[in-house]
Amino acid sequence: MEIVEEHKALLDHIASENGFTEYEILASSGSNKGDNFSGILTAITIKNKEKSLDLILKSSHKKRKKEAKDSHFNVYKREILMYERVFKEFKKFQEEHNIQDPFESVPKYYSSLAEETHDSLVLENLKTQQYELWNKKIAMNPGHIKAVLIEYAKFHAISLAMKQKNPELFKALAETNLDNPMEKLFGGNKENEAKFKSFFTATLSMGYKAVKDDIALTESLKQYEGIAFENIYKSRKPEYNLVVTHGDCWCNNFMFKYQDPKDKTEPQSLRVIDWQASSFGSPCGDLAYFFVANASEEVLDDLQTYLHIYHDKLSSQLRDFNVDPEEVFPFSTLENHFNLFISHSLFLALLIMRVTLSEADEIPEHKEEPDKKKSEELLVLLASQIKNFEEYSRRIKVIINFLVKNKYL
Questions:
Q1: Which of 406, 288, 274, 275 is nearest to 347 (CA)?
Q2: β-bridge mates for residue 113, sequence order
């Protein structure tokens, strides 16, 4: 697999920084079709006779200069910012407060390249360390749900504590490029809002097909359609901007490692990957997305238990920072935020289930930055029926029933 000149220079720099002199660089595809949607993943090995270094090169598609400024809401620059600035500040802040169980569940970062028409970053290759993805076609089991909630609690606690202990630093991070990516993609002007409504309608059409044999669920979906935009806009209010969020919480953005590879009841450790949609928001933005995208009916039926698992760990972390959880994010506030964010999360469920349950040949492969034509093709795709439609219908019905039963809808 060929390595372009700018990537070769980046990898040569990393090789030098890690003690390589004479070496070769091997490259191969870093993901399967349907597992990655925002660019190109390349598995890299730098090796000589004595040692080797396994890496993942994440790179954007080439963009025309006139599209580069706002295209794809600069997701790569956003992720580079997370590794270059936010995670470094978070690590330092945790060390200053001697946190015994710190959040450090992100891949090791090596370097990046940010250009006008092309962005890249290089991370450790977790697959070579026995980390693996969850099977996206099935809901996560309780052991994995708990593990992710614990890491999210540790991650969110840093922001809440920093806002109390070092408000100047938190404000400085807030003034970087961590605004809501959805604002840039679908808001800000009438054209973008029209695009979002078309996207929303196409996504919703699959939901109506999924529940067409159930009159009650069809009515619930119509009710959701009537309130969705109001709740989406409400959730963007500044009062909900409490923490740095992960932002993209479907199963392919977590990698798990097991003590016994044959026993996958619960992971020994995990890594949270793909920080391209990170922004400032409510912790419950992450929680609501995570639950509707990944939770089984068993987990959803016991939601309060899992919310308490998250909040108990969040509270413990905050106390380690010498911050009172009842002051900054009591369980009552979590419930209020969750009620709002879960109420419009059905859109995410309809979209993510469409992706996770699609076969590889049902997923378009874009080899360049999406343009208007490809966006129109995506809308047609979203409205089309997938091969695993029966399972899609079952999963969507579970989520709508959950929302109705708990009076979120």
A1: 288
A2: 120
Q: Which two tokens stand for residue 269?
A: 């450790």
Q: DSSP class of residue 186?
A: H
d(Cα 82, Cα 84) in Å, to the nearest integer?
6
**Model pLDDT for residues 118-129, shown as the tens digit of each residue:** 799 999 999 999
Residue-level length of the chain: 409
Residue 371's contacts (CB-CB under 8 Å, 6 or more residues apart) are: none
* Verdict on whether the full-model pTM lies above 0.70: yes
CA 3 → CA 57, 210, 351, distances in Å? 10, 44, 34
CA dihedral (156, 275, 355, 139) positive or negative: negative
CB 396 within 8 A of CB 388: no
3-state secondary structure (DSSP) of residue 397: helix
Q: Please list, in sequence order, all residues whose beta carbon lies within 8 angstroms of the beta carbon of residue 81, skipping any fewer than 6 positions away.
A: 176, 177, 178
CA distances (Å), origin 214, targets 209, 210, 226, 379: 10, 9, 19, 25
Confidence of residue 195 (pLDDT cuts 50, 70, 90): confident
Q: How far is CA 170 from the centre of its chain?
A: 22
E strand or H helix at 357: none
Distances 269 to 7, 25, 197, 317 between C-alpha atoms, Å = 31, 29, 39, 18
For residue 405, the number of C-alpha atoms closer than 13 Å in the C-beta half-sphere is 11
Shortest CA distance to 269 belongs to which of 101, 88, 54, 121?
A: 101
Go through 326-357 and write b for each residue having 16 or more CB atoms within 10 A of its CB, e for each that does not: eebbebebbeebbebbbbbbbbbbbbbbbbbb
> pLDDT value at position 367?
53
d(CA 38, CA 42) in angstroms, rounded, equals: 13
Q: Which run of H or of E encompasses 59?
A: strand 52-59
Which letter does DSSP use for residue 83 in this model? I
